[in-house]
Amino acid sequence: MIKKVAILANGGDVSGFNAVIRAIVKTAERYGIECYGFVEGYKGLLNNDYIKLSTSGNNRASGIIARGGSIIGSSTNANVFNYKVEENGQTVYKDLSDVCVQNIKNDGFDCIFTLGGDGTQKSARDFSLKGINVIGVPKTIDNDVACTEITFGYNTAVSVASDAIDRLHTTGETHHRLMVLEVMGRYAGWIALESAISGGADIALIPEIPYDIDKVVGKINQRRSLGKNFSIIVVAEGAVPKGGSISVLETRNNGLGVDNTKLGGAGEKVARILQERTGMEARCTVLGYMQRGGTPTAFDRVLSTKYGAKAMELAINGQFNVLTVIRDGKLDSVSLEDVVGQNKEIGAVSGNTSESNIRKVTMDHDLVKTARSIGICLGD
Ligand code: F6P
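Above: the input record for the complex with 6-O-phosphono-beta-D-fructofuranose. Below: its predicted structure, written as tokens.
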């Protein structure tokens, strides 16, 4: 029977981190299991920096279901299998995972819960090969973690984007403009597609469908011929023109380590071309971090609670090295080996890159079919 566990939250913040932490702690306490939280994700694991989590006493893990961010912090550039360190004035990347393994053993943690996206779960799987008991919980606004139908944080991001589209409608209608909204999602178009449907947008450009600008212009002109002198265009940050390339704002750390490509500019690019081609005024709004912060939706609070409780139940039953998932609409778990797919090499390309094993929008998905049915132009 497990006695002592630790949670780490890793990667970009999302609404729902705290709801997962709360559910893990609440479930653990019912079985008399002690809970701790590593501070700032894998960085805390490396530095052996952790705090006690409980719903009584210091009360850290209660009263937090509605709070955005993470009470134990999170780290966005911490692949401990390929960790950035400064040595003799030079930046080098080192595998420091054995330090983490030793910390876990010395501290007597029976299981580590890894709350994070594809990169976090890749490292979790790599730790499982080093004999550590891990259980992953799929997080990210991008909704691109393999093997699950939904990640926590995604619903809140879609809801924020949908609200933004409602607001852009007003300006578009009033000033007869083309209103472009650039949303996040990296190499997956889930946020763009779902928010375009919920916000009633006319065009959605996603990374999975390289767009033909002529088709987009055609859709705008068709609307004009019907007397609709504005259009709403949702552009995923990873959208690519046919025969063109992804819009990169910045390459960090000389392309080394993880999470080194900062996307940006896709929306502005579309707005500029559309203004030229249609003669209509076009404006671009970049939604950015509004999508990740603040209070989770009711849906995300429930999903996070389901994931947290399930993760702890799995640990109690000795089912380690898995990820909690939603499969066919039901709470379930899958092996972390399935989650990393072909990205098998320990410490190899980890998170948030085009090479990692992520779940993209497929052409037979209901969202694509629905968008096409109601005439949303997908740029093809
Ligand atoms: O993966 C989540 C995400 O918000 C992406 O949608 C976005 O491209 C990226 O993180 C931004 O990362 P950062 O916080 O490093 O700017």
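Notes for the reader.
The chain has a mean pLDDT of 94.
Residues 4-152+296-340 form a domain with the Rossmann fold fold (CATH 3.40.50.450).
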